[in-house]
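Human: You know discrete backbone vocabularies at least as well as I do. Show me how you would write down a chain together with its backbone fold. No explanation is needed for now; the record alone will do.

Assistant:
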Amino acid sequence: MAKELLSDVTIRTTKPASKDVRLFDGNGLYLLIKPNDSRWWRVDYSINSKRKTLSLGTYPVTSLPDARKKAFELKKQVAEGVDPSINRKASEEQDAKVLEEKERILNGQPPIDFFRYIAEEWYNKKMQQMADSYKGRLYSRLERDIFPYIGNQPISDITAQELLTVIQQIESRVSTNAQIFPDEAG
């Protein structure tokens, strides 16, 4: 542990060296000064008998009080048995998914949990080896018979009754076509 806590003056006046310089603040927090004068807040911690280091941002964007606050929060997570680096990775993955989802919507594509997206994914995987004429017929049926009714709904919101209604509409049209064109109905 550092004998004296860091001060902003100490941080600003410490010059870079030919090797990395570490200014320790205590409780695992330190400022890493690189030879190119970039300054990174880091915190060391141990979880499950493993020593780990996590970056907290750059100085001066992340101030000394902010770095201390972040380090304190990370230490609380460790005390609760939570690995902050795993939490951070999960959070970054979630942020990436949210960004991807926003981009999909901005590009006019359905969200990934909507029926249309799932149906199109299925279609793209299953139709790779099929004839173009068959692919075209099948996709036009999806567009005509299914997407207008349930395509723009989250898959988890679609009820059995909604599916039954869509199926019944298709069946009624097929039976009407069979009456009009009896030789094609079979």
